Amino acid sequence: MSSTTDSARTDAPVIQCESVYKIFGNNAKRLLKQANGMVDAAEFEKAGCIVGVNNASFEVYAGEILIIMGLSGSGKSTLLRCISRLTDATDGKVFIEGENIMSMRNRQLINLRRNKMGMVFQSFALLPHKTVVENIAFPLQVKGVSTKESMQQAREMIDLVSLTGRENYFPRELSGGQQQRVGIARSLAIRPDIWFLDEPFSALDPLIRKEMQDEFLRLQGVLGKTILFVTHDFDEALRLADRIAIMKDGVIEQLDTPANIVLNPATEYVRKFTEDVPREKVLKINSVMEPVDRNLALANATVKDTAVLEDVAELILNADNPLGVVDDNGSLIGMVRSSHIINVLFGARSDQSQA
Amino acid sequence: MPELLKQRKSLQFLLLIIIFALLCLIIPQSDNNWLWRLPPLLKELPGIINGSVDYLMFEWWPIEVYDAELDDYEQKPLVREFTRSVSSVILFMIELIREILLGGVKTIVAFTSWDWATENQWARWPALPWTVVTAGAALLGYSLGGIRLALLSGLSLIYIAVFGQWEPSMQTLSFVLIAAPVSILLGLTFGVWAYKSQVVENVLNPLLNIAQIMPHFCYLIPVMVFYGIGDHAGAIATIIFATPPMVRLTLLGLKKVAPEVVEAGLMNGCNNRQLLTRVLIPTARRDILIGVNQVIMQCLAMVVIASLIGAKGLGNELLIALNRLRIGLALEIGVCIVLIAIVLDRMSLAWANKQTDYFSSQSFTERHRNLLWFLAIFVVGVVLAYAGRFIFKDGFNYLYLIPHNKGISTAEFWQAGVDWIWDTFFYTLKGFNEWLITQVLIPVKNAYLSMPVVATFTLAMGTGFIVGGVRSALIVGGFLLFIALTEWWDRALITSYLVSVAVVISGTIGVIVGTLCAQKQSTSRFILTMCDTFQTFPSFIYLIPVMMLFGVTDTSVLIAIVVYSTIPATRYTVEGLRSVPASLHDAGTMAGVNRWQRLKSIELPISFPHMALGINQTVVFALSMVIIGALIGTDDLGQLILKSLSDREGVGNGLVLGFCVAFIGLAIDQILRTWANQRKQMLGMT
After folding, report:
1. What is the rounded average pLDDT for all residues in chain B?
2. Dihedral of CA B431/B435/B436/B441: which sign?
3. Mean pLDDT for the stretch of residues B202-230
4. Residues near A224 by Cβ (< 8 Å), separated by ≥ 6?
5. Are B314 and B339 in contact (CB under 8 A)?
6. Residue of A113, A125, A127 lying closest to B269 (CB–CB)
7. B226/B241 Cα distance (integer angstroms)
8. Sheet (strand A99-100) strand order
């Protein structure tokens, strides 16, 4: 995973949303026009409309994992469906690699889906009448790839998701985790650049979920796709995301890196989520380090800037002096002090409990 | 009291029944009294229908048609030209299959002319020897579903051949092989259309409801007018009859497809057609296959009825046998129909479930193994048939075609059995028969007939009101009003009397048997299989054994109805009881209920709505059987429908009578369904 804290990125975003609205109801378009961009959910509800997505704007860059996190009814899945145009947004623009997907004709859209996009679904959404290998080969066959070729590629995908030997099973004969592996393999079969995952692990047991998250990170390590991932599980978001967008009632409350969300929650709603998060598991050294103070002597040991606090905490706390922080090249970019670490991990929390 | 009335539905019912009884007592029987019988204001309706059909057929929208014989253009009405061309296409397809199986000259004539065919006597299709067809069917069965299906299809066809029913069976088969696929395609098309468009669904829904309850005969009359008489007309009537359940089940299946599966299809880059053919229809195929099964069953159920308008085959033979009271022969023919139904059903099922193997690399012979086998069978069969000419020099060539009724027959045995039963139990049977007719049926019938029309309306609409409010009351009232305004109110009462007696008996039997069987996993599976099997039999078959015992009487009809309509009552009871969640059983057990308490206070209340739907189906089954019962003599609506078949002005009468029957069913359906749905909602089961 590459760090994308950098706000001033120079490369063009792969996915870009500009003021996307999705409002359900008969006269949604007219109401939205009257509201002139200032949508109040309560008022719309009185008029018989339900606000799904309210003024969402953000970008996703190549190779990045953006996670949309929110509770049920927060509009996260709706937003994902607007971006993949499974539903038409009421207003706004969605650019996929610079092209506005909202103004695409059906044929263009199908082409885009056949070549650029893959999607994984919460309920797996496998075709019950097709075997594992047929399910995975399905997007290829739809595209017009010959049976032989598509079967060949499907087999490679089966190996990739470690389902070798179960090619001819039917979905009903597989466990939930295995079914979702098929779902993942199917979404990757056309080798898409953009990967949508809609609560892919929510229907799985906790242990299997953990296993699948690891599997996901492993795959992404190999593949480097641009990912939009929807979940209601904050821990999952922290574990997997490069950046997280937290949604409530259709509004994106905060969009930032996991560390920044935990350290500086933008709203009360976000803060509630972060309260119980074990920070040592989330924070990396680069989010807690200070500039090097030349007056202080540094310990002999150093820590890497991308190390997770939990892994190096013992080292830092046991050292008498502050530790130097080095980047990938080995050059010194900051330092960490044990007192500061303790403050970060426990300090803010006691403030909150008093408040 | 008013407060109490609002709360207690049972009190409401009691009040209703008191009012009903009072009305029955007060209102005198007199032909001029509108409270006794409404005037037949709709008397002209059949005439109007006849007139418009005539106009449509013979005058509306004339078009110029080129006539080769006159070498000139002629004015002909559009509708008739259209129906004529549909008829000829269907007839040609039926003939084609028929002549492949049985040989003939009609398809050759279709491309040349009768004159040419008479001059060139050599130009005849030879029939496929029955050995080839039988072995071919077994081979097809094997390639679709393995050795069991091969045995089933092979043995079935051997039975048909050996019992000398080869020709009528193949005639029936050729007719079903056209009617069934056309119905399936039409059903799929309309189902998909309704799935895509709410408007179409709204239009189709009431039509489907009526079509489901319309008696089979009613389709025959308009079809006869528009398409004439013959195999094609039978096929068209069958198609009209068999398509509605297919439409309904297709729609049902498509609606059940999870939205995420559709989205997955879209995200995988399906266009509309791919989404339909590769995602929606295959995913919904469980219901669609039930639809296919229904179509095949309906087709074979119609075999007998279609023979009334000239379809050749087993139906015709069965009808003749029944009319001559040759029970044994009728039984053998009935078995042929059932066997064809089962084989076709299993084959279509196996075909839909067939899997492809993508990985084994196969050689040419392996891939075309079945085709090669068939060629081998073909050659052997033809050689055998040729050799048969020398073996059976004087008589029939049994290795080529076994002529009709020249096979083995067990008819004598059955006939002897019937005679024995008659001789031995004559007084018992006769006694039972007389007792039933004089002590039960006639009193009930008279009671029905002595109801003033106002009292009937009060009872029906009142029940509708109590169950479903003003809306239900108005719907029920509307249906009844139509019937009351025709000339046939009394006939409708007779139909309802037979149906209600039958429904009470079969409902009781069904609920009791169902409840007993539902107590154990193994017995419930057994009884469900039994229901499946019995439902495979075309309704006509049920008349055969009862006629053996009770001859041509109301008793026969009643028993046939009871046997036939017990099936849904039993099935729904078992399904309802088995669907009670296990957690509730556990909760009951932990609360210390015994078996009887569990049944009474847990299982029955929860499965009541489903059982009510079962009773609803029982009514539908009973109605359809009552009308078929007309063939062996009843004096209700069915008899009139049968009469209008041979009437020149029959269309109007037949249709209006059909609507009467359908509306009886729909009125009951409205009440039962509303109640079941409310109940289900209350129990949180929707």
Report:
1. 84
2. positive
3. 83
4. A63
5. no
6. A113
7. 16
8. A50-60, A15-24, A91-96, A99-100
- Residue A260 and residue A166 in one domain: yes
Does any domain span residue A23? no
Report the pLDDT averaged over residues A230-243. Answer: 91
What is the mean pLDDT of the segment spanning B356-385? 76
Instruction: Clarify whether residues A240 and A331 are in a common domain.
Output: no
Give residue B535's pLDDT band: very low, low, confident or very high (50, 70, 90). Answer: confident
A353 pLDDT band, cuts 50/70/90, is very low
Chain B residue numbers touching A194 (CB-CB < 8 A): none
Contact list in A for residue B271 (CB cut-off 8 A) is 106, 110
CB-CB contact of B72 with B89 (8 Å): no
A337 interfaces chain B, CB cutoff of 8 Å: no
Write down all domains in chain B, each with its CATH number in brackets: 49-119 (no CATH), 168-312+343-353 (1.10.3720.10), 415-682 (1.10.3720.10)
Looking up tokens 């263009």 gives A108
**How many beta carbons lie within 10 A of that of residue B437, not counting itself?**
16
A130: contact with B, CB 8 A cutoff: yes
Burial of A224 (0-12, 13-18, 19+ CB in 10 A): middle
Which parts of B450-488 fold into alpha helices (H)? 453-485
Answer yes or no: are the C-beta atoms of A318 and A299 closer than 8 Å.
no
Dig out the tokens for A216 from the structure. Answer: 């996901």
Please calculate the CA angle B346-B352-B355 and round it to the nearest 5 degrees: 115
The CATH number covering residue A289 comes to 3.90.1280.20
Question: Residue A125: which domain range?
Answer: 63-78+99-278
Q: Quick one: angle between helices B285-306 and B327-352, nearest 10?
A: 160
Residue B574 CA to residue B532 CA, distance in Å, equals: 13
CA distance A90 to chain B (A): 19
A108 chain-B contacts, CB cut-off 8 A: none
* Tens digits of residue pLDDT in A313-349: 888 888 888 888 888 888 888 888 888 888 877 765 5
How close A153 comes to chain B (CA, Å)? 13
- Could you tell me how many residues make up chain A? 355
Q: How many domains does chain A have?
A: 2
Q: Which of B260, B261, B274 sits opposite A142 (nearest CB)?
A: B274
* B268 contacts on A by Cβ (under 8 Å): 113-114, 138-139, 142, 186, 190
Question: Which CATH number do you get for residue A163?
Answer: 3.40.50.300
Asked, for residue A35, whether it belongs to a domain, the answer is: no
Give A134's contacts in chain B (Cβ within 8 Å): 358
Q: What average pLDDT does range A235-241 have in this prediction?
A: 90
Identity of the residue numbered B395: G
Instruction: For A314-331, give one letter per residue: b (16+ CB within 10 A) or e.
Output: ebbeebeebbbbbeeeee
pLDDT at residue number A260: 87
Give which of B203, B178, B213 is closest to B89, Cα–Cα: B178
Chain-centre distance of CA B568, in angstroms?
14
pLDDT at A354 over 60: no
pLDDT, one tens digit per residue, over B612-643 is: 888 888 998 888 888 887 777 666 777 777 77
Interface check for A349 against chain B (CB to CB < 8 A): the answer is no
pLDDT in tens, B564-613: 899 999 989 998 888 888 888 888 888 888 888 888 888 888 888 888 88
Which residues have a Cβ under 8 Å from the Cβ of B190 and sit 6 or more positions away? B200, B204, B243, B247, B250
Residue in chain A lying closest to B285 (CA): A129
Chain B residues with CB-CB distance to A under 8 A?
Answer: 258, 260-261, 263-264, 266-271, 274, 278-279, 282-283, 285, 355, 358-359
Distances (CA, A) of A280 to A43, B22, B34: 42, 85, 90
Which residue in A114, A115, A133 is closest to B358 by CB distance? A133
- Same domain membership, residue A271 and residue A166: yes
Q: Is A333 on the interface with B (CB under 8 A)?
A: no
